[in-house]
Design a protein that fits this description.
Oligomer: single chain
Number of helices: 4
Distance between the termini: 24 Å
Number of strands: 5
Structural class: alpha+beta
Radius of gyration: 16 Å
Largest sheet: 3 strands, antiparallel
Helix content: 10-25%
Shape: globular
Order of helices and strands: EEHEEHEHH
Amino acid sequence: MVVLSGTATIRFGVADTSNDMNDNTYGTAREYGGIEIEAKAGDVFIVPAGCAHKTFDTHPNAEFDLLTPGDGHHIAAGQEREALSDVEISGFTMLGAYPKSCIWDFMKGGEKSIEEFGEVWSVPIPAKDPLLGASEEGLVGHWTTTVR
């Protein structure tokens, strides 16, 4: 994920326990734990498969929207600029991408039993870092084992 504009808080490692987003973020349904990071334009986050994450307290304050041009999950490599050329970037804007071989899965938690998480845990370590490619200074050099 890369932050294109604005700022926000991103909470990693906790799930939504209610259908009410406000209650999940600030109220009685909030799950404590995980870590919170203040994100700003230019920040890049590599999120391992299965790691819950949520964005809140966006600035400039704007209504949160999930932007997916077309179906959003099958933009061919090299076609990103064309696919997003008519999208206005304003307020808080964050862009996420997945490795070519990945199957995108949006889950809120509780949909699968622990036995069904094998698909999530079997996602391979990326062959390249989205910013540093095959450099040993990026994911290739630092992410060397898969936890099972």
